[in-house]
Give the backbone structure.
Amino acid sequence: MASPRIALVTRRPRPEHDTDLPVLARAVGAAGGDVRVVGWDDPDVDWSGFDLAVIRSTWDYSWRTGEYVAWAERCASLTRLANPADVVRWNTDKRYLGELAEGGVPVVPTYYRAPGQSAELPAIEGEFVVKPTSGAGARYAGRYRADEREAARAHIAHLHEEGFTAMVQPYMTRIDATGERALVFFGGQFLHAIQKGAVLAPGTAYDDDKMPHPDLRPWEPTAAELDVAERALAAVPGSPELLYARVDLVDGADGGPRVMELELVEPNLFLGLHPGSPSRVAELIVKTAYAS
C-alpha cells in the first residue's frame, strides 16, 4: 500500500517559533506518511495531490480571515481538510464564545462591539481586557484598569477602523496566580495538557508584541477542567469530526474553570512538553489519511 500523502499546513515564511512542526513532520514520516510542509497561500500547491491536509501554524490568518476561510473551503473541495472548513469558518470568529455560553458552557463573560456600534464599554468592575474577535497570539489585546476606560475606548475605535469587531471581557484575576491551562484533544480523545503564565502584563500596550505562551509546563487536568473542556467540544455546531482541538481554561471568580478560547483551527499542541505525544498524534494522522 502506497504511503498516504499528507500536507502539514503553515504560513509563509514558516514561523521559526513553531517548535511543533519539525517534530510532527518527523513523526508523521516515521509513522509511514509521505509528508510535506506547505504554506496555505502558496499558489503552486496542488491540494488535490494530498490525501489529507492538516492545518498547523497558519498564524497569519487573522490578518486575512476572509481570504483564509475561502482557502479552507477551496482546499476542502479538493482533499480532506482537518479540521473541516465549516469548523474553520465558525472558529475564526471568537463570537463563538457567545454560542457556547448560550449552550450552557462556562465561559469568560464576553461583550461585543462591532464596527458601526458604539465604543462605549460595558459595566465591568475592576480590570478588563479588550481584543479583536479575530486574532492569534494575543494580537491587539490590551489589559486595562478601571481608570483607563478612555484608553480602552480608543482601543475599540482603532479596532473598528481596522474592520475588527471588539470583544470586552473582565480580567480573570486568578490567572495571575494559577495561569491558563490548555487541554489538547486528538482523534476525539484527551491527549495532554499544559499550564502557562498570564500573557497580558500590566501596562503592556495593545499593539506591542506579546509572548503567547510564557512559563510553559506540563499539567494534569482536574476532573472539573476535563468536564468543561468536553462540554465545550460537545457544543460545537453540527458535531463535526475534529482531528484536533485545544480548550484554553482559566479560573473564574468562584474558582471554577471557564473557557477562554476554544482552539479548533491552528493551535499550538505543545508536543515538546510531552515526549509520548508526537508518535500518538502521527499515527492518528496517518490513519486518518488512509481513511480519506
